[in-house]
Amino acid sequence: MIQNYFNYKVKVTDKPFTTKSGIKFDHTAAISFLDENKKEIAYIELGFIDKEEIYQIIDQEKPLNVDYCYIENFSLADYRESRNIEKKTYIKIHGFSAYNTFFDARVITDFSFVEFDDEYKNFENAHFLNGSVSFQSAKFNEGGANFSYAYFCDGNVDFSAVDFGAGEVNFKNSWFGTGHKNFQDAHFGEGNVLFINTEFNNGDVSFVNTVFKSNRVSFKVARFGEGKIGFHFARFHCKELIFERTEFGDGKVDFRTTEFADAKVSFNRSVFGDGEKSFEAAQHKGGKITFRKSIWGDGNISFEQIEFDNSTLYLDNADFGKGNLSFNSSRIHELSLKSCHLDYYVDLRLSKCTFIDLSDTVARDIIDIKPYGFQLKIGTINFSGMRLIGRIYIDWNINNIKELIYSQKDTSHRVFAEQFRILKENFSTTGQYADEDKAYVEFKRNELIADLKDGKNKKFLARIWRYPSYAFQWLVFDKVGLYATNPLRVLASMLFGYIFFSLLYLILPFFVNTKIVSSLGDPDKLGPVAVAFYHSAITFLTIGYGDYYPSGVFRWLSGLEGFIGLFLMSYFTVAFVRKILR
């Protein structure tokens, strides 16, 4: 492929020319390729065939082999006009081959409404030196087409409504100049479709409403320049779709309403520019769609309303640049954003998703999971290892956070604790103090269980001590006051403790030689029940009037009650003040 030239000049001589396949031509075309200083940088000699000779071959329905030829102003529109054939009438061409052929036109090289026979159509290394190129509505039938290493200098190339048939279509290493590349409404058959390492350069590229039915469609390492890239309404009914390491330019990348059927789709390591990227309302029946280690530039990214009910969408280690990322109202079986940097707003208000993986992400802005206007049906979210510098908008009750986290499979209590800790700090930042308390309680509960399990690997004495330590913390810290987050529960625990000791003072004298004695001779003549409850009250509240005092076993019991009362009053004060100061 001859590239990077500034100009060229052609000289046709009467010198005969014979191709490598033995085809003889009466004239030779000598082409010199020049740089900006008019210095020759490449020179090539080809056979020259006049377009009228080609038209006569078409008339005679003979095989048309123009390998290693230079062809000027070829146009099937001109052919129809010269033969009084109506416009858009299909012209049949047999045995076509244009390997290393150079097409040159003042305006357009026109293959529109051509119908090739079933043999392989070869445009490998073909050069379209000047003018636009049109294959509009062409029919390639069953043989396939080879445009590998083809060079479209002008860049205005029209393959709209082309039927490529069932054979392989190969644009590998082809090169398009600046202009509109139009594949709209094209139909690719069962053969592989290869745009590997294709250079599209600047200008719009349209695959709108294009149908792919082949086993394998590959845009691997293809490069798009500035301009809109449209796959809107495209239908990839293929087994494998590859956009690995594809470079999309700074224009809008449009995959809206694209049907991926059940293809295995890979955008791994693909690079997007700074324009808008939209996969809105795209559909996938089942399987995997991967964007691992992709780079998304600075434009907004939309996966809104996508229908991936049975599909897993992997965006692991992706760099989303400065654009907002939205999955609003989407249905995805599983969504993985593992190890991503989420530096800008992320809308995770999916209408349905069984699992969202946010593990090891770094979030610097807002992650929005709080429903608005519709119900979210999210089964599980994994926050483990997350570095939350920004905020998560999420509600403990509406989002059913306990179920989101505890539904994680094969997850340790230590990891559960870490996730609740992250949410606890997040709720504190967003002012959701009631939710913060709930997250804190779950964090401490899981941390306590994790410490107990870790103690099984320690030395014997340390291992034995773990159990009473766990029981004490479970009872006092958790059950009595929910880790000082619920003053009403502490108050209820105080009431329970008071009644418990009161009943002991009332019942124990029937079994043990112990009693409560009045130091004033019992002037109020209180009954046993009143004495028991009164003594318990002044002891529990550490009032100590001295009008009644314990004897026997009650001395030790009263001391214990006094300590518990003092502790619970302090516990209540801490929990109450914690609530009020917020």
- Gyration radius from CA atoms, angstroms: 40 Å
Could you estimate the helical fraction of the residues in percent? 10-25%
Put simply, the count of helices is 9
- The class by helix and strand makeup works out as alpha/beta
Could you tell me the strand content as a percent range? 25-35%
**Distance from first to last alpha carbon:** 73 Å
- Based on Cα principal axes, name the global outline: rod-shaped
Explain this structure.
- The protein is built from nine helices and 46 strands.
- The longest helix is centred in the C-terminal third of the chain and has 28 residues, at 553-580.
- Helix content is 25%, strand content 28%.
- The chain is rod-shaped and about 145 Å long.
- It starts with 6 loop residues before the first strand and ends with a helix.
- Helix 4 (413-430) runs antiparallel to helix 5, helix 5 runs antiparallel to helix 6 (460-479) and helix 7 crosses helix 8 (528-540).
- Among the domains are: 243-409, no CATH class; 412-479, no CATH class; 487-580, Helix Hairpins.
- With 582 residues, it is of the alpha/beta class.
Supply database-style keywords.
19-stranded mixed β-sheet, rod-shaped, alpha/beta, 12-stranded parallel β-sheet, 582 residues, 9 helices, Helix Hairpins
Which helices and strands, and how do they pair?
Blueprint: E1 7-13, E2 17-18, E3 24-25, E4 27-34, E5 40-48, H1 51-59, E6 63-65, E7 69-72, H2 76-82, E8 91-97, E9 102-110, E10 114-116, E11 121-122, E12 127-134, E13 145-146, E14 151-152, E15 157-158, E16 169-170, E17 175-176, E18 181-182, E19 187-188, E20 193-194, E21 199-201, E22 205-206, E23 211-212, E24 216-218, E25 223-224, E26 229-230, E27 235-236, E28 240-242, E29 253-254, E30 264-266, E31 277-278, E32 287-290, E33 301-302, E34 307-314, E35 325-326, E36 331-336, E37 341-342, E38 346-347, E39 352-357, E40 362-363, E41 366-368, E42 377-382, E43 387-388, E44 391-393, H3 401-406, H4 413-430, H5 433-454, H6 460-479, H7 487-507, E45 515-518, H8 528-540, E46 548-551, H9 553-580
Parallel strand pairs: 5-7, 6-8, 7-9, 8-10, 9-12, 11-13, 12-14, 12-15, 13-16, 14-17, 15-18, 16-20, 18-22, 19-23, 20-24, 21-25, 22-26, 23-27, 24-28, 26-29, 28-30, 29-31, 30-32, 31-33, 32-34, 33-35, 34-36, 35-38, 36-39, 37-40, 38-41, 39-42, 40-43, 41-44
Antiparallel strand pairs: 1-4, 2-3, 4-5, 45-46
